[in-house]
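Hello forum,

I keep getting stuck at the same step: I have a sequence, I want structure tokens, and every attempt I make locally crashes halfway through. Rather than fight my setup again tonight, could one of you with a working pipeline run this one for me? It's a single chain of 281 residues.
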Amino acid sequence: MRHEHRPLQRRSRLTRRGRLALLIGTLLALGAAALIPLLRGQEAPERPRRLVIPEGWRAPQVYAAIDRELKLPPGSTKTAVATAGLELPAEAKGNPEGYLFPATYPVTSKSTPASLLAYMVRTANEKLATRAVADGGRAHGMTPYQTATLASIIEAEAESRADMGKVARVVHNRLAKSMPLQMDSTLNYALNRSTVDTKLSDTRIDSPFNTYARQGLPPTPIDSPGLEALAAAVAPTPGDWLYFVTVKPGDTRFSATYEEHKKHVAEFNRIRAKAAPAAAR
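Reply #2:
Ran it on my machine without issues. Output:
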């Protein structure tokens, strides 16, 4: 039998060092961002987006922002409130107004209207439970819900953080004297608007938020108050003020008497009258 002598064929095999070099070369080609996750056998972690809720937003504004961020049909988040199981006080009667705490929230592909709403309400409860806010509220005989309600008025009425303590004092002084609060912000809430122009007819509307016609705090908060407004609500600046008006940007006047307040209001009206023709040009 004839034997043919063929050259010996060997399969080329990478050494351990060669396999490692090939792996690293492949990973570098994929990019630095993929290097660590692939070495660990995991997918790259999702980078959360940010949802910013500013101080003073009303619940419908928050709902709309969540719908936009999650690319949902308008009204989706508002509908989700009923089944979200939010940790609200009994006084709220299921209405999260005032408890959608203003902050920056992370949003991922797993976020839902219910999860974001729950996060906001949980944050509000945490802020209301801080020692300074909780103890201050009790010292004034207020429940956390009343503190949130008062803070929401401060958030809407104060032109600056520096004025919050004085605005809070006006509210406390009026409550102590059983005077109607007469806050334009609560009328704006009832009429679903935001304006500095209040007509006499506005003060006569039939609404539980008409603090010109009804005494005490409104039945619910009117916006989402921030921590500064909560702090002012329970620790108002000392003073005897009962009135205030922002005459012009950066110039809010606080008064203890109605006569003094009328002078400030007259100045406000003069400044507004001068600005009107310029705005019409």
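The radius of gyration is 30 Å. If your local run keeps crashing, start a new thread with the error log.
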